[in-house]
Write a structure and sequence with these properties.
The chain is mainly β and about 350 residues long. The chain has two helices and 28 strands. It is globular and about 55 Å long.
């Protein structure tokens, strides 16, 4: 059934709709529109600023592909994720990064929950607030994952409450992260990344043109050194013509927030999260540096990802580094985060728990 409130100043929720065959749910108010692919990972496909009609999220060149209509013809480990990666904002659980084997279970790239359909229920539907609860059980591991997405009237902020439960009879290790990928037209060389103090570690070598030495540590964000010893500012977004790509890990975060601001349009995207759960940030910047599969030079994207663990080589590597999370049988872990769109009034100094930007 399609539900749609007609008052353009109120909150409203719409379900019973489809994006290229995939069931979707839309939450919106006067300021933002959030489209969720319930039939594929509960991915946030669209995060739109209504006043400027700008969708801030990256979209892949191949777009949305319905898993029901696609046949895999390869055993390449990344294909089950990449074939269906439409961009946007997806969630990584219980694995993040590369595939690995954990206690007999083969865990694919970026885990299970971003590849399957979720159940959902509209739990609140008023002019002042709308909320939708989503839930899913993993197949290769004994987890139950729940999350509630909410919007409030006159507030350009998406609120997310989440709980993961170990339904098995054994302690379970896992990784957990959010992967909001920002793209054009919001993303440009006029964008700048703001975040609190952090240490920097470059990730393993990528199959792309890189100017940073892999697996190297730097004391503080944003200035690091290139292979040639020159300064490189991680907070400044390069143009698509830069022809480089890299993956960065940020640790020892002073607080759990960041902002990306387009200093030409003043449009900004901000996140706030619990740094006790998501203890790291992964910074993926693809500026046309991957000239072969999967981007073929067409990738222009920045993802600033709150993550529980290191590294991007998968859960087994996180366990070796001692950064995994663990739940005992029957144990639950709950957390909350929010994401907002704003018009910058200066250099952001933080994001409050209610989504407001501090200056």
């Amino acid at each position: 059934m399609v539900r749609n409130k007609t008052n353009l100043t109120s909150c409203r929720v719409t379900d019973g709709t489809y994006v290229r065959g995939i069931p979707s749910v839309t939450l919106e108010n006067a300021h933002i529109k959030v489209v969720v692919l319930a039939g594929k990972g509960a991915d946030i496909f669209e995060f739109r600023h209504k006043a400027t009609d700008t969708d801030l999220l990256f979209k892949t060149p191949w777009g949305v592909i319905d898993p029901k209509t696609h046949v895999h013809d390869t055993f390449e480990p990344g294909a089950p994720f990449m074939d269906f990666y439409q961009g946007g904002w997806h969630e990584l659980f219980p694995n993040a990064g590369g595939n690995c084997t954990y206690r007999g279970a083969e865990l694919g790239v970026h885990g299970e929950i971003c590849k399957v359909a979720w159940d959902y229920q509209i739990t609140e539907e008023s002019e002042q607030r709308v909320s939708v609860k989503f839930w899913v059980r993993t197949a290769r591991t004994p987890f139950f994952v729940e999350k509630k997405l909410s919007l409030r009237k006159d507030d350009p902020t998406l609120f997310i409450e989440e709980t993961v439960t170990n339904e098995g009879s054994e302690p379970m290790d896992f990784m957990w992260g959010h992967h909001p990928a920002l793209g054009a037209p919001f993303l440009s060389e006029h964008c700048r990344l703001f975040l609190p103090g952090a240490m920097v570690e470059t990730a393993h070598a990528l199959p792309a043109r890189q100017v940073l030495v892999p697996e190297t540590r730097f004391e503080s964000f944003p200035i690091v050194k290139t292979i040639d010893g020159a300064d490189f500012d991680l907070s400044r977004i390069a143009p698509p013509s830069a022809g480089i790509a890299h993956l960065i890990y940020l640790s020892n975060l002073a607080d759990g927030w960041y902002c990306v601001v387009n200093e030409q349009t003043k449009l900004g995207f901000g996140m706030r999260w619990d740094v006790n759960v998501f203890r790291y940030l992964w910074l993926w910047q693809e500026f046309g540096g991957t000239r072969h599969y999967p981007w073929w030079g067409r990738g222009y994207v920045v993802a600033v990802e709150p993550q529980s663990s290191l590294s991007g080589l998968g859960l087994q590597n996180a366990i070796e580094r001692g950064t995994q999370l663990t739940l005992s049988p029957g144990e639950r872990l709950s957390t909350s985060l929010c994401a907002s769109i704003f018009i910058a009034e200066g250099e952001p100094k933080g994001i409050c728990s209610d989504g407001r930007t501090e200056y």
